[in-house]
Design goal:
251 residues; 10 helices; 0% strand; globular
């Protein structure tokens, strides 16, 4: 009697491990951290921009798991708040509130889609159009998340010292605090830029992934490395320039 060959078990790894899980962990950890140290945001509301960042990163991570056009569109709209917040052009408390509202809207949409068992825009899009929109909206969301590092390194850093010489709330400093010597901020932003680059490369290799193949794990490990490195540099800052460096550096 011939032996029956076992049916190959399809890998389910991609349903858990991938860029979505990494961003969820990063966003949640970021949010919990700043909720634990909420007194800093209460004393200086400019620090609330970190809560907005955390919510946006979390929302984009969650949207990776709910692969519907409207879910990804809302996440993409949410991610536009990141460069807006990071530029210091608007009150960061308001930006945080808007980001929170968009997250609530996203949750409601997801619950409605799951409850009704059908997707919004389902009848208005072809299968090809749905796949295209679903993939490209999340790609744009990732790119916008990467702007967090660009806004810090390219826009804010070159101007910070000059603006502070004019006044503590000159220019964007009215909405964002000085962070030139925040070692963890440097590390996190550089790590985030690397993370988004890795995610985009993984997406390029995976394409539409119609077959639902396992997603590469590199981006997930970059998240953990970025978070760990940020904690290390925070500890280094505490024993070198200190946490109250602004008065020492800028006088």
């Amino acid at each position: 009697m011939s032996e029956e060959k076992p049916t190959p078990v399809r890998s389910e790894r991609n349903k858990l491990v991938g860029p979505g899980l990494g961003l969820i962990i990063m966003g949640l950890a970021y949010l919990v951290w700043w909720l634990l140290f909420i007194e800093y945001a209460i004393l200086d509301s400019r620090w609330t921009h970190n809560i907005a960042y955390a919510i946006i990163i979390l929302n984009v991570g969650l949207a990776w798991y709910h692969k519907t056009p409207i879910s990804r569109i809302v996440a993409m709209i949410q991610s536009f708040m990141l460069p807006v917040t990071g530029s210091g052009s608007f009150n960061t408390v308001i930006c945080t509130l808007i980001s929170s509202i968009i997250l609530v809207i996203w949750i409601i949409i997801v619950l409605l889609e799951k409850t009704k068992g059908r997707e919004f825009l389902e009848e208005k899009l072809s299968k090809r159009g749905k796949n295209w929109l679903t993939m490209h909206t999340i790609i744009l969301a990732w790119i916008l998340v990467g702007h967090m590092g660009l806004m810090f390194l390219i826009v804010r850093l070159p101007l910070e010292a000059q603006l502070y010489s004019y006044g503590e709330t000159a220019g964007y400093l009215i909405n964002l605090p000085p962070e030139s010597y925040e070692f963890a901020t440097w590390t996190f932003n550089i790590g985030l830029f690397i993370l988004i680059s890795v995610i985009l490369w993984e997406q390029y290799k995976m394409g539409y992934n119609i077959q639902n193949n396992p997603w590469p794990r590199k981006s997930f490990w970059v998240v953990l490395l970025t978070m760990g490195a940020s904690l290390v540099t925070l500890a280094i800052q505490s024993v070198t320039v200190g946490m109250d460096w602004v008065g020492v550096v800028y006088g």
